[in-house]
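Shift notes (night). Ran Lysosomal membrane ascorbate-dependent ferrireductase CYB561A3 while the centrifuge was going.
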Amino acid sequence: RCHHRSPAMLDVPFLPFCAFLGALGLLCVAMVGTWCQHWRGGFSLDGSSRTFNWHPVLMVTGLVVLYGAAALVYRIPNTWSGPKLPWKVLHGSLALGAFVLTVLGLVAVFCFHNSQGTPNMYSLHSWMGLATVLLFSCQWAAGFGAFLLPWAPTWLRALYKPIHVFFGSTILMLSVASCVSGINEKLFFSLKNGTMAYKLLPAEAVFANTLGLLILIFGVLVVAALARPSWKRPDSDSPDSRQVQEALGG
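Came back to this:
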């Protein structure tokens, strides 16, 4: 079978792309931490605005960066041969870690709202964020039941796999949208009452807007990597998969 490579598609090796993506993710985490530390007063657990600051840091770290890493596990060429169980465990563990950080991020914002007497769940950002977390929890539970439990039938795994892949990308983009909308909402609330107005673009606004763009770029690149056919793990029973395994086995 002949494969025709489009000249318009950049032939980027996966591992350098993955290294760039990892550096971009770490930059997003560093920037959200710097924003909360430098401009928003730092971190604490006293119910004040410094408790809230854990929310953006944990959400960006868990719901975007760590979740994106979990999504790309099966694009690593080493996963294309040998037993899949260790990679399944790694994929599920990264996703579980992302979920734990996300829940802690929700706890931080609810504690802050409750201590300040602020209503919960009144904005589009909060609705979209909570919907993303609920969908994430369903995705992880269904993936655990279908792919990690030994008694799950093969036909169920085959039926659920494309659904799992679709919702994996969907959750990531919802996570990005939630984080970007949350950054914008925080700037609208914070840059007033004695601080320079948001519309005048103070340094904090430029920094946070840049953070939002980098988060968006990270999410788009992860989805692009997931959609690229040459980086997908071949099915174990396909001729392509046997060729890959023979090549990797030397």
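Residues 154-190 form the longest helix (37 residues). The mean pLDDT is 89.
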